[in-house]
Prior knowledge:
The protein has 13 helices and nine strands. It is α/β, with parallel strands linked by helices. The chain folds into two domains: 12-238, 3-Layer(aba) Sandwich (Aspartate Aminotransferase, domain 2), CATH 3.40.640.10; 243-326, Alpha-Beta Complex (Aspartate Aminotransferase, domain 1). A seven-stranded mixed beta sheet has the order 1-7-6-5-4-2-3, sandwiched between helices. Helix 1 runs antiparallel to helix 9 (225-236). The longest helix is centred in the last third of the chain and has 17 residues, at 245-261. The two termini are 21 Å apart.
Amino acid sequence: MNNNESPCPPDGRHLDALCSAAAKALTTANRYPDSDLSALRSALARYIGHGVGADMVWPGNGSNEVLLHLLQTYGGPGRTALGFGPTYSMHEQIATVTGTRWIQADRDSHFGLSPEAAAAAIERDRPDIVFLCALNNPTGTPLDPATLDTVLHAGPGLVVLDEAYIEFSAVGSRAGLLSRYPQLVISRTMSKAFGFAGIRVGFLVASADVLTPLRIVALPYHLSTLTAAVALAALDHADELLANIPVILAERGRMRDALVSSGHTVARSDANFLFFDTGADSSAVAARLAGRGVLVRDLGPGGWLRVTVGHPDENDVFLKALADVTR
Ligand code: PMP
């Protein structure tokens, strides 16, 4: 329960379609993939909606890879990227490995980010790239639409909106803003709501002008024929794969209630994980949970842990183990 994966693997309803797509792809395994990934980009554009065309989609092996392509292209020595912590640690890591200077500003005590705080940080640091999370990892906090609006008007740099968990939110993707804000880049993934973490498909959504230069940094044929074929089949069955979302959200509510009634403070989460205050030394609690076979994530701030919503029986095991180790 430490990786924010879906607890639901592909099952009988769509597994046959995924297997047939993989088998068909293997019959052309001697050939390199379509370097344009045109079928996948078109299918992703249809899935995204909001008038997004295939030339506005850049797929890769997970959203971390496409974010790396973005920072290789637009970051680098002499450039800066700003994020608001606590937040997804790979944003900093991807910035750092591309030689981009990382600047971190703070969220408020409820892990929110006000328009004023975001504007002040941008005014102070004048970053080339600003990272926002539609639903923040590790806290689950939704992004205030007014904050996004302020950031989009605040500076000349790129604004990366990480929508990794967007399918879990009632608000939905902000891809409709792309036609008005050419500096906006949205990152999405099939790792979470689609339950495809092991397949590795993520994608950027942005104007063709922003995306075309990424072809220079991406290695040739970076996404395999097999990955693209299975992703296409999954997009064909998106409704069935995404039907697990309400089940996960109901379990999130149940876990949240149980944590609150045991006296824990739980951050508001619109995602498939919860961030809660153990009221104790979180690394000791995480270690004791691990001793009982339950893995959670200890990312700080001190005292807080992140737990992914699992199957109902896994969630029961977690709740019981937590009660035992924090007793
Ligand atoms: N963004 C956020 C906010 C995430 O939490 C994650 C996964 N933990 C990712 C991006 C990367 O996901 P992937 O590379 O599997 O698409």
